[in-house]
Design goal:
9 helices, 224 residues, Beta-Lactamase, 2 domains, alpha+beta
């Protein structure tokens, strides 16, 4: 647990719910309460954290960060995402749902995430599908999760940066200003700069100064 982390009083009332869901559905069901006021240490309660290997004080996921950013940091009316597929680092297949929590001003302040380990169920289904020959197994095996579960917020940033660079389609040392501006725009849309210290790390990754990143962000904002 991160000893410096302080619980948000507005979210503490959800801790019994997190515990209840986790106990009701057993050790394959991870339930997490995130506090968005501190993205780099957002987990304030977790049940069955062994599913993804996380603990209290670990960071927000890239998916939650991206959705939060795309919806105006919680200003737009999106309340939940249900039954999406994710994968853990060690290969577990999860069925996940996220419910966003709003305060009295309708501002999103956190979320509850439920991640159920369906690895065995998926293996059984694939065996049945293969037996019945009703689907393209190669296509199924190529599916990837869309969320990163990690104990290190820097890893989330690196994943966002890597994805942004891959979308440009050229290595950093060959990028012109327009390319780096676009990489910055993609990373910003995914909420990268909501994380403390992200600008310094991002500037280093794409070989520019922090001042340049601030200029890019101003230019992006002006063109919206």
């Amino acid at each position: 647990m991160n000893s410096s982390r302080k619980n948000n009083p507005e979210l503490e009332k959800y801790i019994p719910l997190v515990k209840t869901i986790g106990e009701m559905f057993g050790n394959k069901c991870e339930v997490v309460l995130h506090d968005f006021s501190e993205p780099q240490h957002s987990i304030m309660a977790i049940e069955n954290g062994h599913v993804t290997g996380r603990k209290i004080g670990d960071p927000i996921t890239d998916l939650a960060l991206s959705i939060w950013k795309k919806n105006g940091n919680g200003n737009k009316e999106i309340d939940r995402i249900v039954n999406y597929k994710t994968k853990t680092k060690d290969g577990k297949i999860l069925k996940s749902s996220t419910v966003f929590i709003r305060n009295n001003q309708r501002k999103v302040i956190g979320c509850i995430c439920i991640n159920y380990d369906i690895t065995i169920h998926s293996m059984f289904r694939e065996e049945m599908d293969e037996f019945c020959t009703t689907i393209d197994l190669d296509k199924k095996k190529s599916e990837k999760g869309i969320e990163t579960f990690t104990n290190d917020v820097n890893e989330i940033l690196k994943n966002i940066i890597q994805e942004a660079v891959e979308k440009i389609g050229k290595p950093v040392f060959l990028m012109q200003k327009e390319d780096k501006l676009m990489v910055t725009k993609i990373a910003d849309e995914k909420g990268a700069f909501l994380i403390k210290g992200a600008i310094t790390q991002f500037a280093k990754e794409i070989s520019v100064s922090r001042f340049t990143i601030y200029n890019y962000l101003e230019e992006i904002k002006a063109n919206k």
